[in-house]
Specification:
Elements: H1 7-17, E1 28-31, E2 34-37, H2 45-57, H3 60-69, H4 83-87, H5 95-116, E3 130-134, H6 141-150, E4 158-162, H7 167-174, E5 182-187, H8 194-209, H9 216-223, E6 224-228, H10 231-237, E7 244-246, H11 263-269, H12 271-290, H13 297-310, E8 316-322, H14 329-341, E9 359-364, H15 373-378, E10 384-392, H16 398-417, E11 434-441, H17 444-465, H18 476-490, H19 500-512
Parallel strand pairs: 3-4, 3-5, 5-6, 6-7, 8-9, 8-10, 10-11
Antiparallel strand pairs: 1-2, 2-11
Bound molecules: 6-O-phosphono-beta-D-fructofuranose.
Length: 515
Amino acid sequence: MNPTTTDAWHALGALESEPASVEPAPRSLVLGELCLDLSRQRLNPEAWSTLVRFAREMGLEAAIAAQLRGDHINNTEDRPALHSALRARADERPAAVAEAIDDTLEQMIGFAEDVRANRRRGYTGRAFKTVVHIGIGGSHLGPELVYDALRDPTDRLSVRFIANLDGHAATEALRDLDPETTLFIVASKSFGTLETRLNAEFARSWFIERTPAQQVKSAVAAHFIAVSSNLEAVERFGIDPANTFAMWDWVGGRYSVWSAVGIPLLLAFGEAAFRDFLAGARLVDRHLAEEPLEQNAPVLMALAGLFNYNFRGAESLAVLSYDRRLRLLPDFLQQLEMESNGKSVDRDGNPVACQTMPVLWGGEETNGQHAFHQLLHQGNRAFTADFVGVVRPAHDRREQHLWQLANLLGQAEAMEQGDDPADPARRVAGARPTTTILLRELSPSALGTLLALYEQKVFCQGVFWNINSFDQWGVELGKKLAERVFPALQGDERLDERSGNSQRLIDHIHDLGSA
Ligand code: F6P
Protein backbone atom coordinates (compact mmCIF):
# COMPACT_ATOMS: atom_id res chain seq x y z
CA MET A 1 0.00 0.00 0.00
CA ASN A 2 1.20 3.52 -0.75
CA PRO A 3 1.59 5.29 2.63
CA THR A 4 0.78 8.68 1.17
CA THR A 5 -2.71 7.56 0.18
CA THR A 6 -3.81 6.74 3.73
CA ASP A 7 -6.20 9.06 5.56
CA ALA A 8 -3.80 9.33 8.47
CA TRP A 9 -0.97 10.54 6.19
CA HIS A 10 -3.10 13.50 5.13
CA ALA A 11 -4.05 14.19 8.72
CA LEU A 12 -0.36 14.15 9.70
CA GLY A 13 0.44 16.64 6.95
CA ALA A 14 -2.27 18.96 8.25
CA LEU A 15 -0.99 18.61 11.82
CA GLU A 16 2.51 19.69 10.87
CA SER A 17 1.36 22.68 8.86
CA GLU A 18 -0.91 24.00 11.61
CA PRO A 19 0.93 24.48 14.90
CA ALA A 20 -0.50 22.03 17.42
CA SER A 21 -3.01 23.45 19.86
CA VAL A 22 -2.00 21.08 22.64
CA GLU A 23 1.40 21.03 24.36
CA PRO A 24 3.68 18.09 23.52
CA ALA A 25 3.05 15.32 26.02
CA PRO A 26 5.65 13.45 28.10
CA ARG A 27 5.98 9.92 26.84
CA SER A 28 8.39 7.33 28.24
CA LEU A 29 8.32 3.56 28.25
CA VAL A 30 10.30 1.07 30.27
CA LEU A 31 11.45 -2.08 28.56
CA GLY A 32 13.40 -4.35 30.92
CA GLU A 33 16.56 -2.44 31.82
CA LEU A 34 15.96 0.25 29.21
CA CYS A 35 13.99 3.49 29.37
CA LEU A 36 12.87 5.00 26.06
CA ASP A 37 11.92 8.64 26.41
CA LEU A 38 10.09 10.27 23.51
CA SER A 39 8.98 13.36 25.41
CA ARG A 40 11.32 15.59 23.39
CA GLN A 41 9.78 14.49 20.11
CA ARG A 42 7.44 17.53 20.18
CA LEU A 43 4.37 15.40 19.53
CA ASN A 44 1.10 16.11 21.27
CA PRO A 45 -1.53 13.46 22.02
CA GLU A 46 -3.38 14.18 18.80
CA ALA A 47 -0.20 13.69 16.76
CA TRP A 48 0.57 10.43 18.56
CA SER A 49 -2.89 9.05 18.01
CA THR A 50 -2.83 10.04 14.33
CA LEU A 51 0.54 8.35 13.97
CA VAL A 52 -0.78 5.17 15.59
CA ARG A 53 -3.79 5.32 13.28
CA PHE A 54 -1.36 5.52 10.36
CA ALA A 55 0.47 2.42 11.64
CA ARG A 56 -2.85 0.57 11.73
CA GLU A 57 -3.83 1.76 8.27
CA MET A 58 -0.51 0.40 6.98
CA GLY A 59 -1.35 -3.01 8.47
CA LEU A 60 1.44 -3.00 11.05
CA GLU A 61 -0.22 -5.48 13.42
CA ALA A 62 -0.55 -8.11 10.68
CA ALA A 63 3.00 -7.37 9.47
CA ILE A 64 4.42 -7.95 12.97
CA ALA A 65 2.63 -11.30 13.20
CA ALA A 66 3.92 -12.24 9.74
CA GLN A 67 7.51 -11.40 10.68
CA LEU A 68 7.47 -13.39 13.91
CA ARG A 69 5.62 -16.34 12.35
CA GLY A 70 8.22 -16.68 9.59
CA ASP A 71 6.22 -15.61 6.52
CA HIS A 72 8.37 -14.82 3.49
CA ILE A 73 8.44 -11.09 4.16
CA ASN A 74 11.74 -10.72 2.28
CA ASN A 75 9.80 -10.90 -0.97
CA THR A 76 12.60 -10.20 -3.47
CA GLU A 77 14.53 -13.18 -2.13
CA ASP A 78 11.44 -15.19 -1.16
CA ARG A 79 12.63 -15.77 2.42
CA PRO A 80 11.48 -15.18 5.96
CA ALA A 81 13.40 -12.85 8.27
CA LEU A 82 13.53 -15.03 11.34
CA HIS A 83 16.27 -13.50 13.48
CA SER A 84 13.68 -13.27 16.27
CA ALA A 85 13.63 -17.09 16.41
CA LEU A 86 17.32 -17.07 17.40
CA ARG A 87 16.50 -15.29 20.64
CA ALA A 88 13.11 -16.87 21.31
CA ARG A 89 12.73 -19.49 24.00
CA ALA A 90 13.09 -23.02 22.60
CA ASP A 91 9.33 -23.66 22.92
CA GLU A 92 8.45 -20.43 21.05
CA ARG A 93 10.50 -21.02 17.90
CA PRO A 94 8.72 -21.72 14.60
CA ALA A 95 8.94 -25.48 14.03
CA ALA A 96 10.71 -25.16 10.68
CA VAL A 97 13.81 -23.61 12.26
CA ALA A 98 13.73 -24.84 15.87
CA GLU A 99 15.99 -27.85 15.46
CA ALA A 100 18.60 -26.02 13.39
CA ILE A 101 18.81 -23.26 16.00
CA ASP A 102 19.03 -25.67 18.95
CA ASP A 103 21.72 -27.80 17.34
CA THR A 104 23.87 -24.86 16.34
CA LEU A 105 23.52 -23.12 19.69
CA GLU A 106 24.52 -26.31 21.46
CA GLN A 107 27.51 -26.75 19.12
CA MET A 108 28.58 -23.12 19.69
CA ILE A 109 28.28 -23.36 23.46
CA GLY A 110 30.13 -26.69 23.55
CA PHE A 111 32.97 -25.31 21.44
CA ALA A 112 33.24 -22.04 23.36
CA GLU A 113 33.18 -23.71 26.75
CA ASP A 114 35.89 -26.16 25.65
CA VAL A 115 38.10 -23.26 24.59
CA ARG A 116 37.36 -21.26 27.73
CA ALA A 117 38.13 -24.24 29.97
CA ASN A 118 41.32 -25.04 28.01
CA ARG A 119 39.95 -28.43 26.98
CA ARG A 120 40.42 -27.33 23.38
CA ARG A 121 43.87 -25.93 22.77
CA GLY A 122 46.16 -24.92 19.96
CA TYR A 123 48.15 -27.54 18.02
CA THR A 124 51.16 -27.30 20.36
CA GLY A 125 49.00 -27.83 23.43
CA ARG A 126 49.05 -24.19 24.52
CA ALA A 127 45.81 -22.53 25.57
CA PHE A 128 44.21 -19.99 23.23
CA LYS A 129 44.67 -16.38 24.30
CA THR A 130 43.46 -14.36 21.32
CA VAL A 131 40.55 -14.78 18.94
CA VAL A 132 40.79 -13.09 15.54
CA HIS A 133 37.37 -12.64 13.99
CA ILE A 134 37.44 -12.10 10.22
CA GLY A 135 34.21 -10.88 8.60
CA ILE A 136 32.61 -7.72 7.27
CA GLY A 137 29.25 -5.90 7.37
CA GLY A 138 26.72 -7.97 9.28
CA SER A 139 29.40 -10.57 9.94
CA HIS A 140 31.44 -7.98 11.82
CA LEU A 141 29.63 -4.89 13.10
CA GLY A 142 27.38 -6.56 15.69
CA PRO A 143 30.07 -8.78 17.24
CA GLU A 144 32.60 -5.93 17.45
CA LEU A 145 30.08 -3.51 18.98
CA VAL A 146 28.99 -6.02 21.62
CA TYR A 147 32.54 -7.15 22.33
CA ASP A 148 33.74 -3.58 22.70
CA ALA A 149 30.80 -2.72 24.95
CA LEU A 150 31.12 -5.67 27.32
CA ARG A 151 34.82 -6.48 27.40
CA ASP A 152 36.68 -6.33 30.63
CA PRO A 153 40.45 -6.25 31.26
CA THR A 154 40.11 -9.43 33.32
CA ASP A 155 38.70 -11.46 30.38
CA ARG A 156 40.95 -14.44 29.71
CA LEU A 157 40.48 -14.31 25.95
CA SER A 158 40.73 -11.14 23.93
CA VAL A 159 39.15 -10.67 20.52
CA ARG A 160 40.44 -8.69 17.55
CA PHE A 161 38.46 -7.96 14.41
CA ILE A 162 39.58 -7.78 10.80
CA ALA A 163 36.95 -6.44 8.42
CA ASN A 164 38.42 -3.85 6.08
CA LEU A 165 39.79 -4.87 2.69
CA ASP A 166 42.73 -2.54 3.24
CA GLY A 167 45.81 -4.70 3.84
CA HIS A 168 46.92 -2.40 6.67
CA ALA A 169 44.01 -3.65 8.79
CA ALA A 170 44.99 -7.32 8.74
CA THR A 171 48.72 -6.59 9.05
CA GLU A 172 48.08 -4.42 12.10
CA ALA A 173 45.70 -6.95 13.72
CA LEU A 174 48.16 -9.83 13.46
CA ARG A 175 51.36 -7.90 14.15
CA ASP A 176 52.16 -9.01 17.70
CA LEU A 177 50.21 -12.26 17.88
CA ASP A 178 51.55 -15.68 18.72
CA PRO A 179 50.13 -18.17 16.20
CA GLU A 180 50.24 -20.99 18.75
CA THR A 181 47.71 -19.20 20.98
CA THR A 182 45.52 -17.60 18.30
CA LEU A 183 42.15 -18.91 17.15
CA PHE A 184 40.75 -17.60 13.86
CA ILE A 185 37.06 -17.29 13.07
CA VAL A 186 36.14 -16.76 9.43
CA ALA A 187 32.56 -15.45 9.45
CA SER A 188 30.80 -15.03 6.14
CA LYS A 189 27.26 -16.09 5.40
CA SER A 190 28.03 -16.40 1.69
CA PHE A 191 31.72 -17.29 2.11
CA GLY A 192 32.21 -15.41 -1.12
CA THR A 193 32.73 -11.86 0.15
CA LEU A 194 35.95 -10.44 -1.29
CA GLU A 195 37.18 -8.75 1.87
CA THR A 196 36.69 -11.79 4.05
CA ARG A 197 38.20 -14.16 1.49
CA LEU A 198 41.36 -12.06 1.10
CA ASN A 199 41.77 -11.42 4.82
CA ALA A 200 41.19 -15.10 5.64
CA GLU A 201 43.73 -16.14 2.99
CA PHE A 202 46.22 -13.66 4.43
CA ALA A 203 45.61 -14.96 7.98
CA ARG A 204 46.05 -18.54 6.84
CA SER A 205 49.35 -17.77 5.04
CA TRP A 206 50.57 -15.79 8.07
CA PHE A 207 49.75 -18.80 10.24
CA ILE A 208 51.29 -21.37 7.88
CA GLU A 209 54.51 -19.38 7.54
CA ARG A 210 54.94 -19.66 11.30
CA THR A 211 54.07 -23.36 11.60
CA PRO A 212 56.39 -26.37 11.02
CA ALA A 213 55.61 -27.79 7.56
CA GLN A 214 54.78 -31.29 8.79
CA GLN A 215 52.14 -29.94 11.19
CA VAL A 216 50.40 -27.44 8.90
CA LYS A 217 47.32 -29.51 8.16
CA SER A 218 46.45 -30.39 11.74
CA ALA A 219 47.44 -26.92 12.94
CA VAL A 220 45.10 -25.17 10.48
CA ALA A 221 42.31 -27.57 11.49
CA ALA A 222 42.85 -26.71 15.16
CA HIS A 223 43.16 -22.93 14.72
CA PHE A 224 40.57 -22.01 12.06
CA ILE A 225 36.82 -22.21 12.46
CA ALA A 226 34.08 -20.86 10.18
CA VAL A 227 30.59 -19.44 10.43
CA SER A 228 28.75 -19.75 7.14
CA SER A 229 25.82 -21.08 5.18
CA ASN A 230 28.12 -22.12 2.32
CA LEU A 231 29.61 -25.34 3.61
CA GLU A 232 31.26 -26.31 0.32
CA ALA A 233 33.24 -23.08 0.12
CA VAL A 234 34.29 -23.46 3.76
CA GLU A 235 35.62 -26.92 3.07
CA ARG A 236 37.43 -25.75 -0.05
CA PHE A 237 39.16 -23.15 2.13
CA GLY A 238 40.43 -25.99 4.33
CA ILE A 239 38.30 -25.61 7.44
CA ASP A 240 37.11 -28.80 9.05
CA PRO A 241 33.30 -29.19 8.67
CA ALA A 242 33.26 -30.19 12.35
CA ASN A 243 34.52 -26.69 13.14
CA THR A 244 31.92 -24.95 11.00
CA PHE A 245 28.89 -23.28 12.52
CA ALA A 246 25.77 -22.91 10.43
CA MET A 247 24.08 -19.74 9.22
CA TRP A 248 20.89 -19.75 7.24
CA ASP A 249 19.29 -17.70 4.49
CA TRP A 250 16.43 -16.78 6.83
CA VAL A 251 18.75 -14.62 8.94
CA GLY A 252 19.95 -11.44 7.24
CA GLY A 253 23.61 -10.53 7.77
CA ARG A 254 22.82 -7.32 9.64
CA TYR A 255 20.44 -9.24 11.93
CA SER A 256 22.88 -12.07 12.63
CA VAL A 257 24.70 -11.14 15.84
CA TRP A 258 22.29 -13.50 17.65
CA SER A 259 23.43 -16.45 15.51
CA ALA A 260 26.78 -18.22 15.28
CA VAL A 261 28.17 -14.90 14.03
CA GLY A 262 28.10 -14.04 17.74
CA ILE A 263 30.52 -16.85 18.60
CA PRO A 264 33.34 -14.45 19.58
CA LEU A 265 30.99 -13.18 22.29
CA LEU A 266 30.47 -16.70 23.61
CA LEU A 267 34.23 -17.23 23.59
CA ALA A 268 34.93 -13.96 25.36
CA PHE A 269 32.06 -13.83 27.87
CA GLY A 270 30.69 -17.38 28.19
CA GLU A 271 27.31 -19.03 27.89
CA ALA A 272 25.45 -17.19 30.65
CA ALA A 273 26.27 -13.75 29.21
CA PHE A 274 25.35 -14.82 25.68
CA ARG A 275 22.04 -16.23 26.88
CA ASP A 276 21.34 -12.98 28.76
CA PHE A 277 22.08 -11.05 25.58
CA LEU A 278 19.54 -13.19 23.68
CA ALA A 279 17.00 -12.84 26.50
CA GLY A 280 17.30 -9.05 26.44
CA ALA A 281 16.47 -9.09 22.75
CA ARG A 282 13.61 -11.57 23.18
CA LEU A 283 11.97 -9.08 25.52
CA VAL A 284 11.63 -6.65 22.62
CA ASP A 285 10.11 -9.26 20.30
CA ARG A 286 7.54 -10.24 22.95
CA HIS A 287 6.79 -6.59 23.66
CA LEU A 288 6.39 -5.88 19.93
CA ALA A 289 4.01 -8.82 19.57
CA GLU A 290 1.97 -8.27 22.72
CA GLU A 291 1.73 -4.57 23.57
CA PRO A 292 -0.91 -2.39 21.94
CA LEU A 293 0.59 -0.06 19.34
CA GLU A 294 -0.09 2.93 21.62
CA GLN A 295 2.41 1.62 24.18
CA ASN A 296 4.73 -0.27 21.91
CA ALA A 297 8.31 1.03 22.16
CA PRO A 298 9.71 0.10 18.71
CA VAL A 299 6.45 1.18 17.07
CA LEU A 300 6.41 4.61 18.74
CA MET A 301 10.10 5.12 18.05
CA ALA A 302 9.51 4.24 14.40
CA LEU A 303 6.52 6.58 14.17
CA ALA A 304 8.42 9.49 15.67
CA GLY A 305 11.18 8.90 13.11
CA LEU A 306 8.69 8.74 10.27
CA PHE A 307 7.13 12.04 11.32
CA ASN A 308 10.56 13.68 11.46
CA TYR A 309 11.70 12.34 8.09
CA ASN A 310 8.48 12.65 6.13
CA PHE A 311 6.74 15.68 7.63
CA ARG A 312 9.47 17.77 9.22
CA GLY A 313 12.10 17.20 6.55
CA ALA A 314 14.76 15.73 8.87
CA GLU A 315 17.73 14.96 6.65
CA SER A 316 19.61 12.75 9.06
CA LEU A 317 19.48 10.78 12.28
CA ALA A 318 22.39 11.47 14.63
CA VAL A 319 23.11 8.73 17.17
CA LEU A 320 24.93 10.25 20.12
CA SER A 321 26.49 7.66 22.45
CA TYR A 322 27.08 9.09 25.90
CA ASP A 323 29.08 6.04 26.92
CA ARG A 324 32.46 5.28 25.41
CA ARG A 325 31.66 1.57 25.46
CA LEU A 326 28.92 2.25 22.92
CA ARG A 327 31.11 4.20 20.54
CA LEU A 328 30.55 1.61 17.81
CA LEU A 329 26.76 1.90 18.04
CA PRO A 330 26.50 4.42 15.16
CA ASP A 331 28.59 2.13 12.90
CA PHE A 332 26.34 -0.83 13.67
CA LEU A 333 23.19 1.22 13.15
CA GLN A 334 24.45 2.62 9.86
CA GLN A 335 24.30 -0.84 8.35
CA LEU A 336 21.13 -1.84 10.16
CA GLU A 337 19.13 1.25 9.22
CA MET A 338 20.61 2.32 5.91
CA GLU A 339 21.10 -1.12 4.35
CA SER A 340 17.60 -2.10 5.48
CA ASN A 341 15.61 0.99 4.63
CA GLY A 342 17.71 2.94 2.13
CA LYS A 343 15.35 1.97 -0.69
CA SER A 344 13.39 3.76 -3.37
CA VAL A 345 11.06 1.12 -4.70
CA ASP A 346 8.26 -0.44 -2.71
CA ARG A 347 7.51 -4.11 -2.18
CA ASP A 348 5.79 -4.26 -5.58
CA GLY A 349 8.65 -2.61 -7.44
CA ASN A 350 6.94 0.78 -7.75
CA PRO A 351 8.72 4.02 -6.85
CA VAL A 352 8.15 4.85 -3.17
CA ALA A 353 5.98 7.93 -2.96
CA CYS A 354 7.86 9.53 -0.03
CA GLN A 355 11.35 9.84 1.42
CA THR A 356 12.72 6.70 3.09
CA MET A 357 15.67 6.34 5.49
CA PRO A 358 17.97 9.36 5.52
CA VAL A 359 21.65 9.24 6.47
CA LEU A 360 22.41 7.94 9.95
CA TRP A 361 25.60 9.13 11.52
CA GLY A 362 26.85 9.84 15.00
CA GLY A 363 29.68 9.77 17.41
CA GLU A 364 31.15 9.26 20.81
CA GLU A 365 30.23 11.87 23.34
CA THR A 366 31.20 14.20 24.81
CA ASN A 367 33.80 14.41 22.02
CA GLY A 368 31.08 15.28 19.51
CA GLN A 369 30.06 18.32 21.55
CA HIS A 370 33.43 19.84 20.69
CA ALA A 371 33.17 18.94 17.03
CA PHE A 372 29.83 18.69 15.26
CA HIS A 373 27.34 19.96 17.86
CA GLN A 374 27.84 23.51 16.59
CA LEU A 375 26.03 22.46 13.42
CA LEU A 376 23.36 20.65 15.40
CA HIS A 377 22.62 23.76 17.45
CA GLN A 378 23.00 26.48 14.84
CA GLY A 379 23.09 24.83 11.42
CA ASN A 380 20.06 25.30 9.22
CA ARG A 381 19.32 21.74 8.20
CA ALA A 382 16.65 19.66 9.88
CA PHE A 383 17.76 16.55 11.75
CA THR A 384 16.69 14.31 14.56
CA ALA A 385 18.94 12.70 17.17
CA ASP A 386 18.99 9.77 19.58
CA PHE A 387 20.81 10.34 22.87
CA VAL A 388 21.97 7.04 24.37
CA GLY A 389 23.30 6.88 27.92
CA VAL A 390 24.00 4.42 30.73
CA VAL A 391 22.89 5.18 34.28
CA ARG A 392 25.37 3.04 36.19
CA PRO A 393 28.88 3.06 34.76
CA ALA A 394 31.47 0.32 35.22
CA HIS A 395 33.88 2.76 36.89
CA ASP A 396 33.60 4.41 40.30
CA ARG A 397 34.28 8.05 39.42
CA ARG A 398 30.85 9.33 40.35
CA GLU A 399 31.48 13.00 39.72
CA GLN A 400 32.81 12.36 36.23
CA HIS A 401 29.85 10.15 35.45
CA LEU A 402 27.30 12.66 36.70
CA TRP A 403 28.92 15.27 34.46
CA GLN A 404 28.59 12.85 31.56
CA LEU A 405 24.85 12.45 32.22
CA ALA A 406 24.49 16.20 32.84
CA ASN A 407 25.93 16.82 29.41
CA LEU A 408 23.58 14.33 27.78
CA LEU A 409 20.59 16.03 29.39
CA GLY A 410 21.96 19.54 28.82
CA GLN A 411 22.53 18.96 25.10
CA ALA A 412 19.10 17.41 24.64
CA GLU A 413 17.53 20.35 26.47
CA ALA A 414 19.45 22.87 24.36
CA MET A 415 18.16 21.16 21.23
CA GLU A 416 14.65 21.20 22.62
CA GLN A 417 14.45 24.72 24.03
CA GLY A 418 17.01 26.75 22.14
CA ASP A 419 17.90 30.26 23.28
CA ASP A 420 16.91 33.70 22.03
CA PRO A 421 19.44 36.33 23.15
CA ALA A 422 19.66 39.75 21.49
CA ASP A 423 22.80 38.83 19.52
CA PRO A 424 21.69 36.79 16.47
CA ALA A 425 25.09 35.06 16.32
CA ARG A 426 24.33 33.50 19.68
CA ARG A 427 20.80 32.39 18.95
CA VAL A 428 19.95 28.69 19.10
CA ALA A 429 16.75 27.78 17.32
CA GLY A 430 15.88 24.72 19.41
CA ALA A 431 12.68 22.80 18.59
CA ARG A 432 14.80 19.85 17.43
CA PRO A 433 13.01 16.54 17.95
CA THR A 434 15.16 14.05 19.88
CA THR A 435 14.81 10.72 21.66
CA THR A 436 16.64 9.69 24.83
CA ILE A 437 17.46 6.07 25.63
CA LEU A 438 18.86 5.19 29.04
CA LEU A 439 20.17 1.79 30.06
CA ARG A 440 20.32 0.89 33.73
CA GLU A 441 23.79 -0.54 33.16
CA LEU A 442 25.64 -1.91 30.20
CA SER A 443 24.77 -5.56 30.87
CA PRO A 444 24.49 -8.21 28.13
CA SER A 445 20.71 -8.22 28.51
CA ALA A 446 20.37 -4.42 28.33
CA LEU A 447 22.53 -4.38 25.23
CA GLY A 448 20.39 -7.14 23.68
CA THR A 449 17.31 -5.03 24.38
CA LEU A 450 18.89 -1.92 22.88
CA LEU A 451 19.93 -3.60 19.62
CA ALA A 452 16.65 -5.45 19.18
CA LEU A 453 14.74 -2.22 19.85
CA TYR A 454 16.50 -0.64 16.88
CA GLU A 455 16.04 -3.76 14.75
CA GLN A 456 12.32 -3.80 15.33
CA LYS A 457 12.04 -0.04 14.87
CA VAL A 458 13.68 -0.48 11.47
CA PHE A 459 11.19 -3.24 10.65
CA CYS A 460 8.22 -1.01 11.54
CA GLN A 461 9.56 1.84 9.39
CA GLY A 462 9.93 -0.60 6.49
CA VAL A 463 6.26 -1.47 6.90
CA PHE A 464 5.31 2.24 7.01
CA TRP A 465 7.20 2.91 3.77
CA ASN A 466 5.99 -0.39 2.28
CA ILE A 467 9.52 -1.46 1.43
CA ASN A 468 11.42 -4.70 1.86
CA SER A 469 13.85 -4.06 4.74
CA PHE A 470 15.63 -7.39 4.27
CA ASP A 471 17.35 -7.24 0.90
CA GLN A 472 20.30 -5.06 -0.21
CA TRP A 473 20.55 -5.24 -3.98
CA GLY A 474 22.06 -1.77 -4.14
CA VAL A 475 25.43 -2.97 -2.88
CA GLU A 476 25.97 -5.34 -5.81
CA LEU A 477 26.72 -2.96 -8.71
CA GLY A 478 29.86 -1.43 -7.20
CA LYS A 479 31.21 -4.89 -6.38
CA LYS A 480 30.72 -5.97 -10.02
CA LEU A 481 32.40 -2.85 -11.36
CA ALA A 482 35.41 -3.38 -9.07
CA GLU A 483 35.81 -6.79 -10.70
CA ARG A 484 35.91 -5.15 -14.14
CA VAL A 485 38.37 -2.52 -12.94
CA PHE A 486 40.78 -4.97 -11.30
CA PRO A 487 42.41 -6.34 -14.52
CA ALA A 488 42.80 -2.78 -15.83
CA LEU A 489 44.60 -1.82 -12.63
CA GLN A 490 46.90 -4.78 -13.08
CA GLY A 491 47.69 -3.31 -16.49
CA ASP A 492 46.37 -6.35 -18.38
CA GLU A 493 43.66 -4.52 -20.29
CA ARG A 494 42.02 -1.13 -20.77
CA LEU A 495 38.45 -0.28 -19.80
CA ASP A 496 35.97 0.56 -22.53
CA GLU A 497 34.72 4.09 -23.24
CA ARG A 498 31.87 3.91 -20.77
CA SER A 499 34.44 3.71 -17.99
CA GLY A 500 36.57 6.56 -19.34
CA ASN A 501 36.76 8.36 -16.01
CA SER A 502 37.93 5.23 -14.23
CA GLN A 503 40.50 4.53 -16.94
CA ARG A 504 41.90 8.07 -16.66
CA LEU A 505 42.36 7.57 -12.90
CA ILE A 506 43.98 4.22 -13.52
CA ASP A 507 46.41 5.96 -15.87
CA HIS A 508 47.19 8.43 -13.08
CA ILE A 509 47.68 5.55 -10.66
CA HIS A 510 50.14 3.96 -13.08
CA ASP A 511 51.92 7.28 -13.57
CA LEU A 512 52.23 7.70 -9.81
CA GLY A 513 53.97 4.38 -9.45
CA SER A 514 53.21 0.71 -9.53
CA ALA A 515 50.87 -0.34 -6.73
O1 F6P B 1 27.79 -6.18 0.90
C1 F6P B 1 26.74 -6.25 1.79
C2 F6P B 1 26.67 -7.56 2.52
O2 F6P B 1 26.06 -8.51 1.72
C3 F6P B 1 25.95 -7.39 3.84
O3 F6P B 1 24.60 -7.40 3.75
C4 F6P B 1 26.53 -8.49 4.65
O4 F6P B 1 26.31 -8.29 6.01
C5 F6P B 1 27.98 -8.38 4.26
O5 F6P B 1 27.95 -8.06 2.88
C6 F6P B 1 28.83 -9.60 4.50
O6 F6P B 1 28.34 -10.73 3.85
P1 F6P B 1 28.86 -12.17 4.18
O7 F6P B 1 28.50 -12.50 5.58
O8 F6P B 1 28.18 -13.07 3.19
O9 F6P B 1 30.35 -12.19 4.00
